[in-house]
Design a protein that fits this description.
Chain lengths: 194, 468
């Protein structure tokens, strides 16, 4: 056996240098280069409200079941065009995800433009999608005996709502849904913008 | 010396025994807690409307399960065992025991703070295995540095001439992980797609440069010790060390195949995933050849069956990882439950079984207190049958999910098709959790339970190896 390696500090030093170099090469440098990717032409930064909604998406762990990564494969065509590098320029923390217990949401704003549907679905997914395994997010709403002026009442299908009172949106549900509605892919061929 | 007999007692310093026992007791708590969370999560697939409060919701608990098993259970169990192994192989007690105690405090503090913050919805993005916010990561990093320092100082003060191969691996793990943690924490190069690249690098290295190195190091100690026979080949062990070090850091991007990460970068990751067969097969062959023709010893041992299953899953899980990296198979398996099966084959079948093997091999020798034979047998079979059923269920379910997508069916058809396999997973998970309760009882018997007095310890004579 190599005698030099019997000094524990040289073992520490040599492995630290090799791993450090590989960490820079495979982690830091790709990170630096790709962090400079310019946004896709026509895409817009998130508004303050969309940004708050995105924070809720992150904090509730939506990414564990929903990807935002359309692959250039036939089975992904239903979710939109293949994602490109520039699509993620405004997305930190990144939300590509690696599980699809639910569908991809890259273009959900385009595929499901109804805000009302999104509210109902968040309150109780099984009221609109039979067999869905998505958790319900009832805490993003408020239940009131009677709607006040200015309240946005969510028309929950019968049997899925509270026994008494009405379900109204809160800042949180409005923010989250405004983020979901903002998830619209920018066309790569028509340069019309948003 | 009869290695299969459990009456053998290490001539370890009582303070080292207390240290080792405390690490394992802490780790066992985290195992019970985080797998209870995992079990709850598995039942949320068939019963999504069950336990729906923000603090019990799937999106928050999932990260508590993964980070807790990684950084609470596996990290504490493996660090505690690695420290004890360093002292045994060096023929001395742990130098600077306060470093190790402080490390244990940091690990526990990080796991507590990490669990609470995640349950409040405070995280660093939903990026697997690094969801803890930066200051929690720093507390954990301190724990790694302190344990690592305790080990390096102990090995530096050893009476043996050579550094035993176990310590190569464990010291490696303690050197790589702080570097990895720092790369993961600094935000400057983590914007948009840049963060995707760092995430691919991080998530795979956390598994491969930390848990794999510690588990292999413990196997290299426990196996020859239990069989009372030297490791088959020292050279294969060294080959495994260097090839693992050079190949593993390159394969992270295979978690993002068909993503907008540069195509060549993904291809490079696939090529090196194949390269990983070298350290995996070298390590497996080395362990298998060390155990050759000793079936009877394995059968009569408490600890060896766990190590046999651990090595088998190291081979199967890692080889599966290589195959999974091929683009043709990723088109079907990526994004499906198949990958959850893979992560349990490796983090549970391999890492957790090796941790158990190491604990059953060394803890009774340290404390002089034996686990129950019946309980150990039940633990072994429930855990082995449980994880095997778990992996098979999700491998089949995941494949069906992927094929349903490829067939162009509506999305919900893939959910319906996978549903029975998710139920099977919850049943398998229940069996695994039952095994953990039994293990916890054994840990109690080996540590806190009243047992023989530990006052017959004699200071080792310097120059005489206490490692055999």
């Amino acid at each position: 056996m190599n005698r030099g390696m019997n000094n524990v500090w040289s073992l520490v030093l040599v492995s630290a240098i090799i791993y450090g170099a590989l960490a820079i090469l495979m982690g830091v440098v790709p990170g630096m280069v790709l962090s400079r990717t310019p946004p896709t032409v026509g895409s817009q930064p998130y508004t303050a409200q969309e940004e708050r909604g995105r924070d809720i998406y992150v904090s509730e762990g939506c990414e564990y079941c929903h990807t935002q990564n359309v692959r250039p494969l036939k089975q992904d065509e239903v979710f939109g065009r293949p994602s490109t590098a520039g699509d993620y320029a405004y997305d930190t923390p990144e939300l590509l995800g690696d599980h699809r217990n639910g569908p991809d949401l890259t273009n959900i704003g385009g595929r499901q433009p109804s805000k009302i549907w999104q509210y109902i679905h968040l309150w109780e997914p099984r009221s609109v999608v039979h067999g869905s395994i998505m958790p319900r997010y009832t805490w993003l709403f408020a239940v009131k005996p009677k709607a006040d002026p200015g309240d946005e009442v969510v028309p929950i299908p019968s049997g899925f709502g509270p026994t008494k009172g009405v379900v109204v949106t809160t800042t949180q549900s409005r923010d989250l849904v405004s983020y979901l509605e903002s998830l619209k892919q920018v066309s790569l061929t028509k340069r019309t913008g948003k | 010396m009869k290695s299969a007999s459990l009456a053998i007692r290490d001539n370890a310093e009582p303070e080292d025994v207390a240290l080792f026992s405390s690490f394992i007791t802490s780790a066992t708590f985290w195992l019970l807690f985080t797998t209870a969370v995992g079990l709850l999560l598995s039942f949320k697939f068939p019963y999504p409307d069950w336990a729906t409060s923000p603090f019990l919701s799937f999106g928050r608990l999932r990260a508590i399960h993964t980070n807790g098993t990684f950084y609470g259970w596996a990290s504490i169990a493996l660090s505690g065992t690695a420290i004890y192994v360093a002292a045994r192989t060096s023929g001395i007690g742990v130098s600077n025991k306060w470093l190790a105690w402080l490390s244990l405090a940091c690990y526990n503090l990080a796991a507590i703070c990490g669990t609470i913050t995640l349950d409040l919805g405070i995280n660093y993005g939903d990026q697997e295995y690094r969801e803890w916010v930066w200051w929690v990561k720093i507390i954990f990093l301190l724990g790694v540095l302190l344990s690592g320092l305790a080990i390096v100082q102990t090995v530096a003060n050893r009476v043996e001439r050579e550094i035993y191969i176990s310590n190569w691996y464990t010291i490696g793990g303690f050197v790589f992980t702080p570097i990895l943690a720092i790369v993961a924490i600094i935000p400057a190069y983590q914007v948009g797609l840049g963060q995707v690249a760092v995430q691919g690098f991080y998530m795979h290295n956390a598994v491969g440069m930390w848990f794999t190195f510690l588990a292999l190091g413990i196997t290299y100690y426990a196996l020859p010790k239990l069989l009372n026979r030297p490791i088959y080949s020292y050279a294969l062990g060294v080959l495994g060390f260097w090839t693992n070090l050079v190949f593993y850091p390159v394969i992270g991007a295979h978690h993002f195949e068909f993503s907008p990460l540069p195509w060549w970068f993904q291809t490079l990751a696939i090529v090196f995933s194949v390269g990983m067969l070298v350290p995996v097969w070298a390590g497996t062959a080395n362990f298998a050849l060390t155990m050759r023709a000793r079936g009877e010893t394995v059968r009569r041992s408490y600890a060896l069956p766990f190590i046999v299953v651990g090595v088998a899953y190291y081979f199967l899980g890692s080889t599966q990882g290589t195959v999974e990296a091929f683009r043709s198979l990723q088109t079907i398996w990526h994004f499906t439950s198949f990958t959850i099966g893979h992560s349990h084959a490796t983090m549970y079948g391999f890492i957790t079984f090796i941790a158990w093997g190491g604990i059953y091999a060394l803890l009774p020798r340290a404390t002089g207190k034996q686990p129950s034979l019946l309980a150990t047998g039940l633990h072994f079979w429930f855990a082995t049958i449980g994880v095997t059923a778990y992996v098979i269920a999700l491998s089949i379910g995941g494949t069906i999910q992927g094929l349903a997508w490829a067939a162009g069916n509506p999305f919900i058809a893939s959910v319906d098709a996978a549903a029975p396999f998710w139920v099977a997973r919850a049943v398998a998970g229940s069996l695994m959790f039952l095994a953990h309760i039994i293990f916890a009882y054994n840990v109690y018997l080996m540590t806190l339970a009243p047992g023989p007095e530990s006052d017959h310890w004699e200071p080792p004579k310097r120059g005489k190896a206490a490692t055999a």
